[in-house]
């Protein structure tokens, strides 16, 4: 059975110093991420203009823990929505309509469903903002082409095996057209 792990809720530790390289296609950035992981660099990141399928696997990132938050808050919303209606009809405002019992559960389904979706959606959005520490004000833009039409590989200075010249040569060897050191 699959169980949640602590590393699924990892947080990225940002640094302002490091080296980045620009690539032209998703295939190039996936190849670069795979080779960076194989080389032993840690805490590196990839910036893309749109989601790239397979990039998380190439980077060696664990599966996100966010679906667990959605699942458990959806269950909470389902139980709370049903319970709120049942307790209201049974104890707070007991009206007998057309001889139906106070536990006419099929009448509770629309509200229960809506409350389930509401709690799952809102809690997922809140958890995403907390885990990603958004919004981040004052964040430095590395290059104007990143996330417009270029793909970037960022290796920060706190990465394992980091040496400025070694990382620069490594990224150039991956086929990057533009390599820049940020200090």
UniProtKB/TrEMBL annotation:
Keyword line: Membrane, Transmembrane, Transmembrane helix
Protein name: DUF3341 domain-containing protein
Transmembrane segments: 68-87, 107-131
Record carries keyword Transmembrane helix: yes
Pfam families, sorted: ActD (PF11821)
């Amino acid at each position: 059975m699959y169980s949640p792990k602590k590393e699924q809720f990892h947080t990225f530790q940002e640094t302002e110093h490091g080296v980045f390289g620009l690539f032209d296609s998703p295939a190039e950035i996936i190849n670069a991420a795979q080779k960076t992981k194989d080389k032993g660099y840690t805490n590196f990141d990839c910036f893309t203009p749109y989601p790239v399928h397979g990039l998380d696997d190439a980077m060696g990132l664990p599966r996100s823990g966010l679906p667990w938050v959605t699942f458990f808050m959806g269950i909470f919303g389902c139980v709370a929505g049903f319970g709120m209606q049942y307790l209201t009809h049974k104890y707070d405002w007991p009206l007998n309509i057309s001889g139906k019992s106070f536990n006419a559960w099929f009448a509770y389904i629309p509200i229960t469903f809506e409350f389930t979706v509401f709690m799952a959606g809102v809690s997922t959005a809140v958890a995403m903002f907390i885990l990603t520490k958004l919004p981040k004000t004052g964040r430095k833009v590395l290059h104007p082409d990143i996330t417009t039409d270029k793909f970037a590989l960022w290796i920060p200075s706190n990465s394992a095996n980091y040496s400025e010249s070694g990382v620069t040569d490594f990224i150039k060897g991956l086929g990057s057209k533009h390599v820049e050191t940020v200090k």
